[in-house]
Amino acid sequence: MDKKEYNALNINYEEIERYLRAGKLIIYPTDTVYGVGGIIESEETIENIYKAKERNFKSPLIVLVSDVEKIEKIAYINEKNREKIEKLIKRFWPGGLTIILKRKDNVPDIMVSGGATVGVRMPEHEIALNIISRAGGMLPTTSANISGEATPKSYLELSEEFKSRIDIIVDGGECPIGSASTIIDMSDEPKILRLGAISVEEIEKVIGKINGEEKN
User: Fold this and answer.
1) pLDDT, mean of residues 118-140
2) End-to-end CA distance of the chain
3) pLDDT tens, 160-209?
4) What is the CATH number of the domain that holds 25?
5) Is residue 214 assigned to a domain?
6) Is residue 215 part of a domain?
7) Residue 172 maps to a domain
8) Residue 9: left (phi > 0), alpha (psi -120 to 50), or beta?
9) How far apart, in whole angstroms, are the C-alpha atoms of residue 84 and residue 87?
10) In which element (H, E) is residue 11 found?
11) How confident is the model at residue 36 (pLDDT cuts 50, 70, 90)?
12) Using omega within 30 degrees of 0 as the cis cutoff, is the peptide bond preceding 29 cis?
């Protein structure tokens, strides 16, 4: 299959779906940064993401979803935290918050480094959501760069070397947020793993103090 390149005005989603179903990788814009992804059903495809990035297999990928209902296809929502998780989703999805949950067995070990959890996010970006939907509503993704390079916040920041390794490339201009998502672990006691697009203060306004003390 030939390499395919699109811009925001000429995207052929049916063609992208065929390529993804054939195990090809895609560079695409999201609301935070440019991502590289491939279908979740193929461990070989996920392995190729790591190879393209020259990334250590100990670094998990996250799953971008096209709608909230897809969460429980790949993860368990801890009943103890369900109310807080639902509040976070209502306030920050679609958007720049990645939520770590206990994973289900259908999540390939390779994409979560054999761990017990998986990160899930719904982006606020029409092109991204359409692509994810074409991939079955769940698309394992990480930033579209070789490990050690700067994370691309626009199409112009993608490296030519990295683009040469990928089968489908979508030019969507600049990413609206332009910074990585904040990651919160909700698989047990809430814990911020990475600060990004959403601040601790914003999160605590929704679910109370992260250290377990409720906000008055």
Assistant:
1) 98
2) 58
3) 999 999 999 999 999 999 999 999 999 999 999 999 999 999 999 999 99
4) 3.90.870.10
5) no
6) no
7) yes
8) alpha
9) 5
10) none
11) very high
12) no
